[in-house]
Amino acid sequence: MKHTSFPFAAVVLSLSMVPAGYGLASQPEQDPFTEQPTSKIGPGSDQIEEGSKVTLQYVATALGSTEIDYSNVSEFIQGRHEIFPALEREVVGMKPGEEKKVELSPEEGFGTHDDRKQLNIPKTLLPFGTKAGDVLRNDAGELATVVEVGDIMAVLDYNHPLAGKPLVVQLKILRVENP
After folding, report:
1. Which CATH number describes the domain made up of 38-110+163-177?
2. Assuming Cys at both sites, which of 21, 26, 79, 126 could form a disulfide with 50, CB separation 3.0 to 4.6 Å?
3. What is the rounded distance in angstroms from the CA atom of residue 26 to the CA atom of residue 29?
C-alpha cells in the first residue's frame, strides 16, 4: 500500500517585521532582512528541541521488505506526541538536512496484530469482484483489508496493514522552527 501526500506551505508574516518603536517591548532598530546570529542551543537554534515545529520526509518499510509501504512529507510539533514516541526520541538534536535510519519494533510502530479486529461478514455485503488483499472502506470511514473470501463468508481485518511488523524508517529533516 502506497500513500503519498505533499502538504502546502503557508507564509505567515509576524510582528517581528513591525518597525522598532511600535511593539510592547521596543528593541533598537535592526534591519529585518539582515541575518542575525543564532545560538547553537535554545531559542533561535536550528536543532530539534521540545516545541520545535519540524518538517520531515520519511519512507517506512516493513523490516526485510524491499517495497516502500509509506512515503510522505509530514509536519509535527516536537513533544506533542504527533508521531511515534520512538521517532520523537530519535530526532532530538537533529538539524535540517540530517538523515537517520530508525528501526522500530511492532510495539513502537503500529502495534501488535490484534485478532479481535478481524470480522466475519456475509460475502453478499462485499462489492462485486472483491478478492483477498483488497482494501475497503466501511460506512464509518474505517479501512479494512480483505483477508479471505469464501463461498458464503468473508474475513475483514481492521488492523493497520503494518501492525505486528517491525519497521525501518528512513527520515530526513527538512525544516526546524523553534519557539
Report:
1. 3.10.50.40
2. 79
3. 9
pTM above 0.85, yes or no: no
What is the H or E stretch that residue 101 is in?
strand 99-104
Q: Would you say 70 and 3 are in contact if contact means Cβ atoms under 8 Å apart? A: yes
Per-residue pLDDT tens for 133-171?
A: 999 999 999 999 999 999 999 999 999 988 999 999 999
- As given in the structure block, the three cell numbers for residue 9 are 506551505
CA pair distance 149, 130, nearest whole angstrom:
8
Taking every pair of Cα atoms in the chain, the longest distance, rounded to a whole number of angstroms, is 79
Q: What are phi and psi of 136, to 5 degrees?
A: -120, 155
Is-contact 54 93, C-beta < 8 A? no
In angstroms, the CA 122 to CA 142 distance is 18
User: Amino acid identity of 91?
Assistant: V
Q: Is the dihedral of CA 3, 145, 136, 83 positive or negative?
A: negative
Residue 164 CB coordination number (10 Å): 16
